Amino acid sequence: MFDDEQMNPKNNFFLLGQEEAEKALLDAYNANKLHNSWLISGVKGIGKSTLAYRFARFLLNERQRKSFPAASLATDPNSAANRLISSCSHPDLKVIERNFVEADRKKVLKAIKDGAAFDESELKGLKKSAVIRVDDVREINEFLTKKSSDDGWRAVIIDSVDDMNLSSANALLKILEEPPVKSVLLLISHNVRQLLPTIRSRCSKLVLKPLTDEAVGCLLRRYRPELTEKTIAEVVQLASGSIGKALNYADCGATERYRELAEIIGLGSRFKLQDLLNWVDAAVETEESFELASELILKYCADHVLASRHIEETVSAWENAVRTLRQTEALNMDKKETLINIIGHLCKVM
Predict the structure, then answer these.
(1) Exposed, middle or buried: residue 140 (CB in 10 Å: 0-12, 13-18, 19+)?
(2) Model pTM?
(3) Pairwise CA distance, residues 168 & 305, whole Å
(4) Cis peptide leading into residue 69 (ω within 30°)
């Protein structure tokens, strides 16, 4: 089994299913028409960050390239540049993402200074800021004003621009207006409709499509070889073209949770209250379990809306579920009550 660190985009050299987007970047480079800013968008878990790192490695390994035009974005995993990228220490790559909250950021800086490493459980316990702060974005300016280490390319990855607030978005706009030569900004977005129109208009756009079921199945076999073909088929059906979701679902028993939900809703008004309460209690144990429960509810609606005898009522219930789940997160409403109300309503209309 591949561990999380091997599958981290900065270490992952294997990208499947996004050949069209790879070709667009490669063709622009080979034609010497590479735009300074690229907006890479699509649903979560389909390879946007992996593609961004793949292209950054391609640019930062330019000196090692023996032929032109380049035939692919592939690079040698053992090159000096790639080893630096994997260790987050390449001088010509800047990665902007949500930083740790101030108290935990100090812990990380102290650990680095003392030469002490956080283990996986300690890292998971650290909290990150809700947004990418304006000071983080301003670091891009400082980075781009410096000369590259070998007069080559400089690359910036923002993962993701959805996490910026208005101040940091406006700071990014100023950078996009006049980026230096031989610099590329790769902006990752899971929902471009939330971005400022002026940011969208200043970027070349790469819209990544959900992966095919065949691609998701292939990746599951690669990353989770212990899974049976039956489990792979069930997970693929749930994942809706996202290998990120598929891996999460495989690891947390989502297929069984989905079956339990389907049984409850399938009974309509005859559902057993205790079964519903047990399902909801498990769903609100952690933030991750609540997020999973929310995804499974919306997936059930999507899968069964056309089979409903009351399509209009079902669509209305689906829209209500989406709206209520968003409000629950934004307003810190009672999660258990929210799920009981949503599933109870779905039992009535479906």
Answers:
(1) buried
(2) 0.87
(3) 40
(4) yes
